[in-house]
Amino acid sequence: MKLDHFLTVDGLSRDQITTLLDTAVEMEAVGQREVKKIPALRGVTIVNAFFEDSTRTKMSFDLAAKRLSADTMAFSGKGSSTSKGESLRDTVLTIAAMGVDGFVIRHKGSGAPQRAMDWTGLPVVNAGDGMHGHPTQALLDAYSMRKALGDLEGRHVAIVGDLFHSRVVRSNLTCLRTLGAKMTLVAPPTLLPQGIRDWPNVDEGVEITTHLDDVVPTVDSLMMLRVQRERMSGGFFPSENEYTEGWGLTRERLKRLPEHAVICHPGPMNRGLEIAPEAADHARSLILDQVNAGVSTRMAVLFHLFSGGSDETRAPAAPAATTAPTTTSEREETK
Ligand code: CP
Question: What is the CATH number of domain 14-133+293-317?
């Protein structure tokens, strides 16, 4: 399967997502070898351009590229010529002129990775753009849940918290619905995006509520979202205590989770606000598994983007599902 870009999960078929997840299984095995490296992307130069802060996405993309033997260049908005007023367009064109093969881009502006691809003509992976999307986060979340729960068809996944500012919920909704999960979105009324019921990925398999206590005993997976205080200009809730009381995964709610249910959080966490430390560190918490899955799923994305999955460069065993459409040009671009 050859990807042209990874700007969004919108338009990916169930077979395509499954192929990526199956490739990630092979990539995880690479990380368990004595020599954690394969030559798949030898000679490929990937720029990790992070115009916005990141720990896990930035570091896991770097490790993923290195495990595939790609050369990597790191660009951070801080300390770059953007502080002298250089535009995004000039920045990516400048870096592209050095002869690189593609970009991984995080930016606070929704649509910035798409623009960078349009300007440079190079493949781009969206590592999180504004409130729009975080497609590799959705992939690693699906990977972690599938590993813990098996096939996600018919599983009930609830995503709870600051839906308004969350790019994670937007990508997860599409990815998990495509994989057949039932979804419930839970938020305080002030953090429910206006018009959410009209989102194209909100269909009959998606419930929306403000009542977390009704949902907790019914889930297979409970994903708590970070309260994005840095994106809040006004008061979205009266106090942190009231937020936790209404929409936090507290010790009391933890006791009412089904025994098999797993706990997810994309990180970074506000411990004690949206998630109690007892829940974050619980045996059924997948939070560090999600971080671990970030490396193998991002290896899978880079592999299908830059090697095209050709036999010549494929070093791990062939991914299990290879019957998917062979090009993402079939995607319906939403932007
Ligand atoms: N989940 C996530 O995107 O984390 P970082 O901001 O640390 O990359």
Answer: 3.40.50.1370
CATH of 135-288, one of 3.40.50.1370, 1.10.357.10, 3.30.930.20, 2.60.120.260: 3.40.50.1370
- Alpha carbon nearest to ligand 1 atom 6, residue: 54
Q: How many residues does the chain have?
A: 335
Residues of the chain with CATH 3.40.50.1370: 14-133+293-317, 135-288
Which pLDDT tens digit goes with each residue over 14-57?
Answer: 999 999 999 999 999 999 999 999 999 999 999 999 999 999 99
230 lines ligand 1 (CB under 6 A): no
Instruction: Give distance in angstroms: CA of 134 to centre of ligand 1.
Output: 9
pLDDT tens-place string over residues 123-176: 999 999 999 999 999 999 999 999 999 999 999 999 999 999 999 999 999 999
Q: To the nearest whole percent, how much of the chain has pLDDT over 90?
A: 88
Nearest one of 152, 182, 151, 183 to 169, comparing CA atoms:
183
- Ligand 1 atom nearest residue 106's Cα: 8
- 239 burial (CB, 10 Å; 0-12 / 13-18 / 19+) is exposed
Return the ligand 1 atom nearest residue 52 CA.
Answer: 6
Cα(161) to centroid(ligand 1), Å: 16
The backbone region for 211, taken as left when phi is positive above 0, alpha when psi lies in -120 to 50, beta otherwise, is: beta
Q: Is the CB of 136 under 6 A from ligand 1?
A: no
CA of residue 136 to ligand 1 center, whole Å: 10
